[in-house]
Amino acid sequence: MEDRHTYNLDLEWQKDRIGLISSPELNEKITVATPPEFPKGVEGIWSPEHLFTGAVLSCFMTTFLAMAEYSKLEFSKFDCKAQGVLEKVDGKFKMSEIILKPSIILNEESKTDRVIRLMEKAEASCLISNSIKSSVKLDFSAIQVSESV
């Protein structure tokens, strides 16, 4: 794997506070807008805040899945919820915190401690988490670890 990669995006303003993000490397486009909490914000459209939170969430997932595969961890289901916290700090809005709430169904209940350690390692290794100022926290209170049926 090379040490440097680039990811190209284009944005085209559509109307009001709405734009369309695309990439010459991808087929799908994403409509984005100012979130409804802000003046002239638009409901029901992905916002930069959603995409920011989604970048952390998807990086955690892909890093965890790679580590789980390498570690030969067997599971039948994995999902994760994320909450991005936007707040005003020193007079400026910032995404101060991302809370990840993973859930997994393991093939063996005895691997619970191992999966939690692996998730902590995945979060610590996530390149997006390592590239931002926001704190990223794992919340295992929602984790549902049980043997598959």
UniProtKB/TrEMBL annotation:
Gene3D superfamilies: 3.30.300.20. Coiled coil: none annotated. Pfam families: OsmC (PF02566). This is OsmC family protein.
